[in-house]
């Protein structure tokens, strides 16, 4: 997202696989609920003053939100009703907190925050806040990097790497059409203090990223970043990007966005997103999500800011497959999980297995704050393993409240249904494990994993899990 706000339009590079018709239900005239893709979305926490921006699952599985009123807050649902009832302000006067990352250090918790130094912008800074007494309020604060370049974009997401040795950050371009002093991904030692911008203790890892707002480690240790690409090239181009960050590479900005022309030395993206969609926060399914697979990534598209009537993409949460094939190449295929959901900026997967996202700017039925999405029927499927042609994949089914009922599992494409399996849901949570067979001729085909719960006597379908779309590579 640009500091000013931003824009987008429909992507030709994004395959819309699910008809994500969104249904707005107003229950009792009060609590808005939206349904899309087999999910029900409800407000988890309404940001009381201003918007909600960054969102991340922290230690002990709780959600941390960086908000437009300059606060970093801890959000928790202790009663289990899907709404936050514990809200603690961890730090305030932390303007535009677009990046939050954590390190547990003995009994202390380090919370790294990337933020601007004034309410209305200015230079960015990375601060390490320390909570020494576990009361969710910081007790000490140390500047890690100061005087990060101000301009069209700011310092964005932060990520501590799996080794804990480096704190990675993304710094947006300081000018809209040229890097200025930014457009990069860098790293610094987490214990560094008062490092001024330009100091050799800051290592610049990759360049040519206009505004890599989302930055996150894949569960396999690889670092990925979204990039929201150039404006003012018309409504049809360029697409936004998901990039695998590799040391020493240049990712194209300002000369190239999307797939580089043949022979161009810049690094191509692993995935294309909505044209002017403002691809921002991302979250990998690391196994915590209730229904899904470890080969999924969720991305928030904030949408276009220019107001051009030709720009209609974005303002959606994208659910994408991200697979690495046997030759080490990454494949990416995206579809809408939900559209027209205000201005979503960041996504996170909660410890309860629900998908959470921030809405920075409201829209009809969408309050600014944090929203929670969970399978509408309560029935879930999780794929274990990567779908490859000819292989068998284990599917874990959970159908609380349907114990003793039958389930029916199958693979479908537009015309055919295969690998039909049935069984009985056992135990208090209605658990079962089924196996589906991926057809040998399925490379490039989009398949849907469909799981239905059947009435024990009539055989009628009484509940359906969110469909899982897989494309076999
Ligand atoms: Ca609650
Ligand atoms: Ca404290
Ligand atoms: Ca690029």
Q: How would you characterize the overall build of this protein?
A:
The protein has 473 residues and is an all-beta fold. The protein folds into 2 domains: 23-375, TolB, C-terminal domain (Neuraminidase, 6 Propeller); 380-471, Immunoglobulins (Immunoglobulin-like, Sandwich), CATH 2.60.40. Helices cover 0% and strands 49% of the residues. The protein contains no helices and 36 strands. The chain has strands at residues 23-27, 31-36, 39-46, 52-57, 63-67, 72-76, 86-91, 95-105, 108-118, 121-131, 140-148, 155-160, 167-171, 184-188, 195-196, 203-207, 215-217, 223-227, 239-244, 271-275, 279-284, 292-293, 296-301, 316-324, 330-339, 343-349, 355-361, 369-375, 380-384, 392-398, 406-412, 417-424, 431-437, 446-454, 461-464, 468-471. The protein has a 6-stranded antiparallel β-sheet with strand order 1-2-3-28-27-26, with no helix packed on it. The protein has a 5-stranded mixed β-sheet with strand order 8-9-10-11-15, with no helix packed on it. Strand 31 (406-412) and strand 32 (417-424) form a beta hairpin. The two termini are 32 Å apart. The model is unreliable at 3-30 (pLDDT under 50). Bound molecules: calcium ion (3 copies). The site of one calcium ion has 6 residues, from loops. One calcium ion is lined by residues 77, 79, 81, 83, 85.
């Amino acid at each position: 997202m640009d500091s000013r706000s931003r824009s987008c339009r429909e992507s030709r590079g994004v395959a819309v696989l699910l008809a994500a018709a969104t249904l707005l239900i107003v229950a009792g005239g009060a609590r808005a609920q939206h349904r899309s893709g087999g999910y029900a979305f409800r407000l988890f926490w309404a940001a009381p003053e201003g918007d909600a921006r960054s969102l991340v699952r922290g230690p002990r599985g709780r959600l941390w939100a960086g908000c437009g009123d300059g606060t970093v807050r801890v959000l928790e649902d202790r009663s289990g009703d899907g709404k936050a009832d514990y809200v603690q302000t961890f730090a305030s006067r932390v303007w535009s907190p677009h990046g939050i990352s954590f390190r547990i250090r003995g009994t202390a918790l380090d919370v790294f925050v990337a933020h601007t130094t004034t309410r209305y912008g200015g230079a960015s800074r990375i601060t390490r806040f320390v909570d020494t007494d576990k009361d969710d309020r910081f007790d000490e604060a140390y500047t890690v990097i100061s005087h990060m370049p101000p301009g069209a974009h700011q310092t964005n997401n932060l990520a501590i790497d799996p080794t804990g040795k480096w704190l990675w950050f993304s710094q947006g371009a300081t000018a809209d059409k040229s890097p200025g002093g930014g457009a990069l991904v860098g790293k610094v030692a987490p214990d560094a203090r008062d490092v001024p911008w330009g100091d050799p203790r800051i290592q610049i890892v990759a360049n040519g990223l206009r505004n890599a707002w989302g930055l996150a480690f894949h569960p396999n240790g690889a670092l990925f970043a979204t990039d929201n690409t150039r404006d003012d090239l018309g409504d049809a181009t360029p697409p936004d990007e998901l990039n695998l960050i590799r040391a020493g590479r240049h990712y194209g900005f300002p000369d190239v966005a999307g797939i580089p022309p043949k022979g161009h030395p810049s690094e191509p993206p692993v995935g294309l997103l909505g044209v002017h969609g403002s691809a921002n926060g991302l979250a990998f399914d690391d196994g915590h999500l209730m229904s899904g697979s470890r080969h999924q990534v969720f991305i928030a598209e904030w949408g276009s800011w220019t107001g051009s009537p030709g720009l209609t993409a974005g303002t959606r949460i994208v659910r994408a497959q991200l697979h690495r094939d046997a030759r080490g190449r990454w494949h990416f295929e995206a579809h809408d999980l939900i559209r027209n959901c205000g201005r979503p900026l960041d996504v996170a997967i909660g410890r309860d297995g629900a998908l959470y996202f921030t809405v920075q700017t409201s829209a009809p039925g969408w309050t600014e704050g944090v929203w929670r999405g969970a399978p509408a029927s309560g029935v879930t499927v999780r794929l274990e393993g990567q779908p490859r042609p000819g292989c068998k994949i284990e599917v874990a089914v959970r159908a609380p409240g349907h114990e003793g009922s039958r389930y029916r599992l199958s693979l479908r494409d537009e015309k055919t249904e295969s690998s039909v399996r049935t069984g009985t849901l056992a135990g208090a949570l209605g658990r079962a494990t089924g196996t589906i067979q991926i057809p040998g001729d399925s490379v490039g085909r989009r398949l849907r994993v469909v799981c239905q719960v059947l009435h024990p006597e009539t055989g009628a379908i009484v509940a359906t899990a969110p469909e899982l779309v897989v494309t076999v590579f």
